[in-house]
Specification:
The protein is an alpha+beta fold. It is built from 2 helices and 11 strands. It is globular, with a radius of gyration of 30 Å. The relative contact order is 0.19.
């Protein structure tokens, strides 16, 4: 049987020779032919490409920042983000207020809403004793009006979601023992931060009453 010299045959021979030359060069670069074969297999194998990068975002539900155990009394969350602020007036409330519905909530445990670190402890004439947590993507969680900080924690210490970080109080410009809770993205400087409504981010335990929204209420 005589093989005819056809264009298709010439293309096949050329492809084979090209592959041989490529593998020979690769052998010099990477070492043995076995390594080259392994590299070729990895490149050609389906799914060998790296997985797409996933950017972390604040989309998961947060742990409720107040211990909802009924032994401390029943809780109510005022849905007042964007409502009236005692300090700043109408339409300027940067968080939500969570406290006991009837009996005093002073001393009630406050919980880390997320895994992160204690970023800063501060005291304000308006916000009272304040503890600020920071997560791994630069979001800050502000706890205001604390009665006391959890003494075993200091700035820079890691915290896990659900860990006690302090107790509810009425320090600052309030007479109601409650937690004023805020979420600031990217910065703690007001002109550079995005301050977001905590309510859509929070997981509400059974028994916590969420009041109707009062945004821009006077």
């Amino acid at each position: 049987m005589t093989l005819e010299d056809t264009p298709t045959r010439r293309q096949l021979i050329g492809s084979a020779l090209g592959a041989a030359v490529t593998l020979a060069g690769a052998s010099q670069l990477f070492g043995s032919a076995d390594r080259v074969a392994a590299l070729s297999s990895a490149v050609m194998r389906p799914g060998a490409a790296t997985k797409p990068a996933v950017r972390l975002a604040i989309t998961d539900k947060l742990t409720f920042p107040v211990d909802a155990n009924p032994i401390y009394g029943t809780l109510v969350c005022l849905n007042n983000f964007g409502g009236r602020s005692t300090a700043n007036g109408s339409c300027s409330h940067n968080g939500v207020d969570i406290g006991n519905d009837k009996v005093s909530g002073r001393g009630r445990p406050l919980l880390a809403c997320v895994d992160g670190v204690v970023h800063k402890d501060e005291a304000f004439s308006t916000g009272g004793l304040t503890r600020i947590l920071r997560d791994g993507i630069g979001t800050y969680y502000r706890y205001h009006h604390l009665d006391a900080y959890e003494s075993s924690l200091k700035e820079g210490d890691p915290v896990t979601a659900g860990q006690v970080i302090g107790t509810m109080g009425s320090t600052g410009n309030t007479v109601w023992s409650h937690l004023h809770f805020e979420i600031w993205q990217d910065s703690l400087t007001p002109s550079r931060a995005t301050i977001i409504d905590p309510v859509p981010r929070l997981w509400f335990p059974h028994g916590v009453t969420l009041r109707a929204p009062t945004a821009c209420a006077t």
